[in-house]
Amino acid sequence: MVYKIIFGTDGWRGMIAREYTFENLKRCAQGFATYHLNKGNKGRAIVVGYDKRFLGEKFATSVAEVLAGNGFKVFLTETATPTPVISYAVVAKRAIGAINITASHNPPQDNGFKVRDEMGGAVDPDGLKEIEAAIPDLVEDIKFLSYEDADLQRLIEKFDASIDYIKHIKKLIDLGPIKEAGLMVVVDSMWGNGAGWFTRLLKGGRTKVLEIHNERNPSFPEMLRPEPIPPNVDAGLKFSKANQGDVVLILDGDADRVGIGDEKGNFVNQLRVFGLLAYYMLEVRGERGPIVKTLSTTKMLNKLGEIYDVPVHETGVGFKYVAPKMIETDALIGGEESGGYAFRGNVPERDGILGGLYFLDMMVKMKMKPTELLDVLFSKVGEHYYDRIDTLFSGDREEIRNTVKNAKPETIGGLKVTSLNDTDGFQYYLEDGGWLLIRFSGTEPKLRVYCETTHGDLVQAILEDGLRIAGLK
Predict the structure, then answer these.
(1) pLDDT (tens digit per residue) in 290-322
(2) Which of 165, 189, 214 corresponds to the end of one domain?
(3) Which among 16, 95, 324, 364 counts the fewest CB atoms within 10 Å?
(4) Mean pLDDT along residues 335-350
(5) Residues 388, 4: Cα–Cα separation, whole Å
(6) Does 430 reside within a domain?
(7) Containing structural domain, residue 50
């Protein structure tokens, strides 16, 4: 029986040696090749990169061989490379897209096949459907050229993607003041592709960078997965507190997302970080432009939009929705609840490295520690509280979806429900301006229950009601 490959938010992910095999990976690569052949792109360039997961470089080479077999020129990264660096390489190399072998924040047993468009951003939902539909069922339908033959024909070229990216970053931000600020910056790269990047970018000044989890270890010790949220961040926060760090920058496995820890070793949740970065762009940098946010992130952005008279656009969850909206509106900043943020002037893609640098620049420009920055933000928009619960499920999705659809609660966590948005899952708006969202993960068999509220003492009650509404409690 042929395994059916189904694309999620960014592409396809699966368990290594179960569904994620060389054969199925080559099928995906052929689907991507066919998609571009149908668009008349034969002979054009495609970037291929990978992360530090098990067999990443071998999987990437296999993908490159399929693309070369279909007549494409392949730029293959010479080492494990952050996703935002791969995305920028698409622009720098004038390529038609990229394939990135990464499972991002998934557990260690997984790997993935992430695709990017000609702008270095997420492929839109229609494009993902076309790629998925072009994936052949039979191995015999895969075109293939060995690496040795492709190298002789100059169809595969290994390259260092960091050179163009660093030149680009230095045009977006002056690193000099950060280097000379005398900060103690702790970086937790979560055993992933972000290792060494902040050390490289900020060396030569008074600021010191201390790294943890900066070697390759595909089993991801001291964390459940390389995702920059608790409890995965706990070891890095503890390390920072012991070393008197002024801030902790926490990159996920492929470095497209960034988490923040404050000077006390406490985690700053990703909704608050999004609010701070938007405030930085609007107030500190003095720029203006639309904000693009997924429905699962903070209403603080709507309040900032009103204060600074800029539009705020809300999309479904995932950068396959955020990126096209950012391009359409020439947005100043875009982001999602997972800690992924994109910025105008860069590719329309999450960039944990640039996000971390912008956060450091805000600290330097405002001469404040993270807790002080939060006080300033809350003085503008009020204090907001957030949390989420991820629950594995083995039942039928439609049955759970129907249970939620038929629930129709009047109150959640003791707060009156004012309206319902079913654009992407079920989002209940509450009387305090907060919300509860119930939706399925786009990459894993999980139900996610999220909430934001101005009542810190009601967070857990709201989440518990969310599980009850879904019939999981």
Answers:
(1) 999 999 999 999 999 999 999 999 998 888 899
(2) 165
(3) 16
(4) 95
(5) 31
(6) yes
(7) 11-165
